[in-house]
Amino acid sequence: MTNERLPVVVAGAGPTGLMCALALAREGVPVxxxxxxxxxxxxxxxxxFHPPTQEMMAPYGVTERMHEHGLQVRRWQIRSRRDALVxxxxxxxxxxxxxxPYRLHLEQHRLTPLxxxxxxxxxxxxxxxxxxITAFEHRARSVLVEFESDGVPGKLxxxxxxxxxxxxxxxxxxxxxxxxxxxxPEQFLVVSTPYxxxxxxxxxxxxxxxxxxxxxxxxxxxxxxxxxxxxAFPCSPGLPxxxxxxxxxxxxxxxxxxxxxTEYEIRYQSIYRVHQRVASEWRHGxxxxxxxxAHLNNPLGGFGLNSGIHDAVNLADKLARVWHGKGxxxxxxxxxxxxxxxxxxxxxxxxxxxxxxxxxxxxxxxxARMEELVAxxxxxxxxxxxxxxxxxxxxxxxxxxxx
Length: 403
Ligand SMILES: Cc1cc2nc3c(=O)[nH]c(=O)nc-3n(C[C@H](O)[C@H](O)[C@H](O)COP(=O)(O)OP(=O)(O)OC[C@H]3O[C@@H](n4cnc5c(N)ncnc54)[C@H](O)[C@@H]3O)c2cc1C
Description:
By secondary structure, the chain is α+β, with helices and mostly antiparallel strands. Helices cover about 35% and strands about 25% of the residues. It is built from twelve helices and 22 strands. The protein has helices at about 15-25, 50-55, 60-70, 110-120, 170-175, 240-245, 245-255, 305-325, 330-360, 365-380, 380-390, 395-400, and strands spanning about 10, 30-35, 50, 70-75, 75-80, 85-90, 105, 125-130, 130-140, 145-150, 150-160, 160-165, 180-185, 190-195, 205-210, 215-220, 230-235, 270, 275-280, 285, 285-290, 295. A seven-stranded mixed β-sheet has the order 6-5-15-16-17-14-18. Strands 8-2-1-12-21-20 form a six-stranded mixed β-sheet. α1 links the parallel β1 (about 10) and β2. α9 (about 330-360) packs antiparallel against α12 (about 395-400) and α10 crosses α11 (about 380-390). The radius of gyration is 22 Å and the shape is globular. Flavin-adenine dinucleotide binds near residues 45, 165, 305 and 308.
């Protein structure tokens, strides 16, 4: 077997790793996915898919299957705790530029089985659960990947290694790169309830501004109707997790947000730390980073998982060409330039701006910003430009122009 015939090894069967493997296999590149966990992870994480992400997954039949269960969210709102509705945006304004002029809401753990299923139908793709990648070593024309399975070490020779192993990426930590950026002091509390917020005028996605306690609202399909409303709130730094997750404290928070006149039924609650970080380099020889392994951002705007899919599709396209001898490693640097610039200039900038907008403490500044948003929503062309940006369409276009 020549080195060019060696498979690409992908670390991690999260959405980024599975999407990258699927796109590589579709291009005739043999691929081996090693996932540390014994099965797909089921924790509650991302759940909103922007139009370009739906477009990217469509050729694999994944988008169509997502629609069987997902919720189409055409309108979303910016609200304030004090004045209720501030502005409403209609993604239908983008129907001339995308076949999916809406956000699709679907839990991340309902997407990954669809990706895995599609991958398993592809020739030349293997997925190994319970295989934790522990180390790698560059060879002259390959990379030797070391893993551990049931405590037994093993080795795999790969043409390239893709580190799609999440925010705590082992692959990234083994590389001489920095994970540049910062961690927000406050944690985020995420609460899910079947209580129907639509009866209070909420669209299925809404961002609620408040100097002390902003909130982000997403309706998720759950196992089926009536679905679940998921709310994210900031938590005071310094309070222990137990106190933040105490049932009475969570109930009080929900009642403070919106008095329901009855006890909220709380289905899930969790707390997590939020980072804004980008790896200083995404390629080191035959090792590449993608998804959360390469970048992390706050969830305001729903960009994290979306940009992981964008990385995966972009990287697979270039890596397949290189693997087939239709381009040199400089093509892989184009992947890095395009995706790193989209991450820094769009995803990081927009997610930080969204958070600052919601939490602005100066009432005068907050009022001015809200008035600006009202004016944007009321002007068709401005609203369209705003939606092109917040749906990641203009950022992708800009980054794809980078050679
Ligand atoms: C509470 C929460 C809410 C979020 N909301 C949104 C949202 O609304 N919109 C959005 O776009 N994003 C959101 N995100 C972010 C989104 O969930 C992540 O961006 C997404 O999971 C990234 O996918 P990934 O495949 O890159 O990494 P992951 O999903 O973390 O997958 C990495 C995989 O690698 C495996 N792994 C780790 N180490 C190894 C190893 N050494 N060897 C082999 N396998 C390994 C892990 O087990 C895991 O399965 C949210 C995140 C959280 C935590």
